[in-house]
Amino acid sequence: MTSSSAPPRKTLSKIACNRLQKELVEWQVNPPLGFKHKVTDNLQRWVIEVIGAEGTLYADETYQLQVDFPEHYPMEAPQVIFIPPAPLHPHIYSNGHICLDILYDSWSPAMTVSSVCISILSMLSSSTVKQRPEDNDRYVKNCKNGRSPKETRWWFHDDKI
Amino acid sequence: MGNKIGKRRQAVEEKYTRPQGLYLHRDIDHRKLRKLILDCKLAPCYPGNDECIPNKEECPICFLYYPSLNRSRCCLKGICTECFLQMKPPHSTRPTQCPYCKTPNYAVEYRGERTREERGLEQIEEQKVIEAQIRVRHQEIQDEQERMKKRQEIRSSEVEHNDNINTSPSVSSQAYLEQEFGFVSSQSLSTIPVDTRSLIRRSREDHFDMDLEDLMIMEAIWLSIQEQDTHGNRSSPRLQDCRSAAKDSPPQGLACTVAALAERQLASHSNALATERPTVDRHPSEYKAWLNACEGSSTSVPPTDDGECSIDNCSEVAEAGTSYAGSDIAFDMARAVSLRDGVNMASGHLLPESFEEQMMLAMSVSLAEARARSSPQGVTWM
């Protein structure tokens, strides 16, 4: 159960709720290309289908992103992971954790679910090789207790992908 | 710092010198905050509004509307005072980054409510984003055409193999479209697939679901709408209303009208081929695509009547626009642009019947627009 670790315990703050509702409306009117939001009644956890872009290694492959929002969203970053099977990518671990700076240190409250999705798709699209990160097994083993990727001390070393 | 010319100093009501409780602020120096607000260094803490009201600005962090926002010094993006206080923890030792452009040592200034010029500059910036998107879209269309060509080559070699679900006779979409729209460059139209299923699929998945021409038309139409709206009646983006209006005709706004018309046309063309097409199913999603386009092209007119935007300012704004990380553009586009409802013209006012007429309308509008842009003086419409 590393992938679908329990949603953040605290419920959304009023401001988080309000913003997410607006983001959802915006998404419905203008969804980012290549993504489908799976309709649920849970505003705090979104499940989003990602379709690999044409002409990339992931063309026509479909994956699922799980986005959990913390109480103090957007001041705090959402937790974004792939629901396994996660795409084979040098920055995506087999448990679905994604090594992408904007999800952690570089998160800004000006970002939205939509902009995060586009960044993830862009990360997929620029990949030249389908493989797991070198430290995949070690990392996944360390996360066995269902640790959130937000607790990981990420080291962002590659700015190419 | 001295007094800034043009700073509109006005008494701020006492109750707006305190946070309105948007966040549970910790460690706020209320006296300092009050002083900053009274000195017009920070925007008053007006309660944010859920709905867009004319001339209000949306804070890109909390998505609420305010009469005025603070501006970041680095990129001039707006932020409401309460969100700003969240960005800058008072006891943090690390320098705060601008949430928009990541410039270190984030600082804001308050310039009162936006003037017309400022709004115009913002529109220029948004225009640049739109133009970039159109360029990207153009590229996509070209790629798509190449794919289509390849697919057609394959298809023509296996004409016999007909799909059961598809009731349409297997006609090459290229041939069909050339026949129907012979007068328009078949090049761009060939991107509209005739296959019903793919039409439906495309309209759900595709961001725009329309080719460049359509996009330009919508932009041109939007320009004219916006021009009528010059007096700044900015109100809530009633997209849903608009959408339902399109379903239960007659639609209200011009954009709706044109969109619905084009939609109907498309529908009837497809009907000619596929007899059992689920027309109704397709409407909302396809309309949505039109709406996207309306939205995407909605902010385009720099207010030429002021004619005062200095080149320095322009380039500054432009830089801010480009330095904005790619991933944020979608956000920016989506949020910054909103449908105005100054659109309410009598629906009988302009009803181009055919595609040709629509093209003519669009061309005349864009011509007028081009003329307006090239002349430094005021724009005259109609």
TrEMBL record, chain A:
SMART domains: UBCc. The active site is at 99 (glycyl thioester intermediate). InterPro entries: Ub_conjugating_enzyme, UBC, UBQ-conjugating_AS, UBQ-conjugating_enzyme/RWD. GO terms for molecular function: ATP binding; ubiquitin conjugating enzyme activity. CDD domains: UBCc_UBE2W. The keyword Transferase applies. Keywords: ATP-binding, Nucleotide-binding, Transferase, Ubl conjugation pathway. It comes from the Eukaryota. It holds the Pfam family UQ_con. Its EC number is 2.3.2.23. It is an enzyme of class 2 (transferase). Residues 15-161 form the UBC core domain. Belongs to the ubiquitin-conjugating enzyme family. PANTHER family: UBIQUITIN-CONJUGATING ENZYME E2 (PTHR24067). Accepts the ubiquitin from the E1 complex and catalyzes its covalent attachment to other proteins. This is E2 ubiquitin-conjugating enzyme. It comes from Platanthera zijinensis. The lineage of its organism: Eukaryota, Viridiplantae, Streptophyta, Embryophyta, Tracheophyta. The gene is UBC16.
TrEMBL record, chain B:
Residues 229-249 are annotated as: Disordered. GO terms for cellular component: cytoplasm. InterPro entries: Sip5/DA2 (IPR039301). This is RING-type domain-containing protein. It comes from Platanthera zijinensis.
